[in-house]
Amino acid sequence: MARLTVVAEERDGAGGGEANLRADGVTHVFETAGGPLMAVTDVSFTVEEGTFVGLVGPSGCGKSSLLQMMAGLLNPTEGRIVMGEEEIREPRPAEIGVVFQESSLLPWKSARENVEFPLYLRGVERSVREKKALEMLDLVGLGEFAERRPHELSGGMKQRVAIARGFCQDPSVLLMDEPFAALDEQTRMTLGDELLQIWERHKKTVVFVTHSLTEAVYLCDKVLVMSARPGRILKEIDIALPRPRTYDLMATETFGRLRAEIWELIRGGDRP
Ligand SMILES: Nc1ncnc2c1ncn2[C@@H]1O[C@H](COP(=O)(O)OP(=O)(O)OP(=O)(O)O)[C@@H](O)[C@H]1O
Ligand SMILES: [Mg+2]
Q1: pTM beyond 0.90
Q2: Which residues are CB-contacts of 179 (< 8 A; sequence separation ≥ 6)?
Q3: Binding site membership of 77 for ligand 1 (Cβ less than 6 Å)
Q4: What is the mean pLDDT of each run of 10 residues along the chain (272 residues)?
């Protein structure tokens, strides 16, 4: 616990500044063998610093494409992604971290080596990055598994390693693309809670793609609902539920209403 406080204080001391992440009229067209394919069109939204924002929508509507543009891994065909005052045109691993699905772990490296890898790429000294990686593995309950390779870990444990790696970078923004998709419901609920606890202490900005509407309502401050491809933002839904979130919230009328509203938007989507 004490450790967590220290990490949070370190971050506060770093003096955050304006790190709102914004999409301004973003369109992306992929050039494919079958011709141009418009993945998203005229998408605009703001993710306020320190908030937890969900991105939901039908399969193929451009959620991953949008996340990749926010990560600087893909550039908009039109419009811009802006963080603070600066346009994002290339990856910025120190400021913007990405957590994909489990396959993104390096299989030949231990859990600890995977977690410290972004720091290694940044040239952080070995003892410092090892200490930080072990702290983060402790945080996600994997302190004892630090030297195990991914194939020796369960699916849920691998996801914890990926999350620890995301946090180890200590980015101000963490982009998560269906990080729990491959997991059973019980594990994803547990990991969701762990993620919220870490987030509440570190107050990072999180953008979280999910197909689970329950997960979206449970975790987020705001949910961006997208239409079918070419993806547009149909609506931004504020999730005005108290924090810390607890499971009994799911049984409340407000929770059910929010979830139903998102479902109606996705289902009925474009229809008048
Ligand atoms: N590299 C690419 N080249 C060509 N087309 C692509 C590429 N990446 C994605 N697409 C297309 O762009 C559209 C949006 O894909 P994207 O992966 O962003 O959707 P998604 O909302 O993340 O879907 P899912 O929920 O299934 O993960 C799809 O039609 C997809 O086929
Ligand atoms: Mg996707």
Answers
A1: no
A2: 99, 100, 101, 159, 162, 163, 191, 208
A3: no
A4: 37 49 98 97 97 97 96 97 95 88 84 94 93 92 95 90 87 92 84 89 92 96 97 97 95 97 85 50
Question: Quick one: tokens of 182?
Answer: 């491959």
Hunting for tokens 């997991």 — which residue is that? Answer: 183
Domain positions in the chain: 2-95+171-267
Alpha-helical segments (H) within the chain: 2-13, 63-70, 111-121, 126-139, 155-168, 185-202, 213-219, 253-268
| Domain 2-95+171-267 homologous superfamily, CATH | P-loop containing nucleotide triphosphate hydrolases (3.40.50.300)
* Rounded CA separation 36/217 (Å): 34
Substitution candidate for ligand 1 out of 40, 41, 63 with most atoms within 8 A of CB: 63
Atom of ligand 1 lying closest to residue 65 CA: 18
